[in-house]
Design goal:
By secondary structure, the protein is an alpha+beta fold. Strands 7-8-9-10-11-1-2-3-4-5-6-12 form a twelve-stranded mixed sheet, with helices on one face. 20% of the residues lie in helices and 41% in strands.
Amino acid sequence: MNKKTIRKPAVTHFVTLLCLFYFLPFAAWSQSAENQKEARRVFDIVYNKVYGPQGSTLHYDVNIVGILKTNGTIWIKGKKSRFQEARYLSWNNGVTDYWVDMKKKTVTEYDANAPRSDKYMSKFTFNLEDYTYSIDKSPQYYYVITLNAKKDVKGIKHLKAIIEKDTYAPKSLKIKVLWFWTTVKITNFRSGGISDHIFEFPKDRYKEYKFEKGK
């Protein structure tokens, strides 16, 4: 993230907040600690619904600072994954990751366990322990959970998640990486009932495509 010069109004605002911080009663400290604990509890529930062994699926609409827009459906279960968009499709059965480019009519095979040199996707690295958590429970039907990266954490700097209160289903994410924001709207979320068969690549369907090995 590029460093920015702090202007006088920002400094004044910071000093004001600092004064308030030191004069807050102990009850406020306790409430803040409870807020962080509750935020992490709710976020862990949602995270396990998405990435737990039961598997999950959802439809996503992604908007990266108004420049790149895409949408599709993704399935996740352990090390296995699958997604489909208008042009690209992927099946990862935990051993081989097949990437289909429908425009070029190619299928690229990757070792599912080999790290890829992808400078863009590496910006989205995520570790649950790298963040502080807070929660706003005031909306009637949703939780609003905010994650802020700790010092020197790379990748995602800020994340705001909108979560349904009754089902703990994620509804949207707003993510900041470096200087840009990405908005992800989520629909048709389902946790569980994901068959392993979903992740097997239907090779016969693409027998007219050119197959190649990915680096």
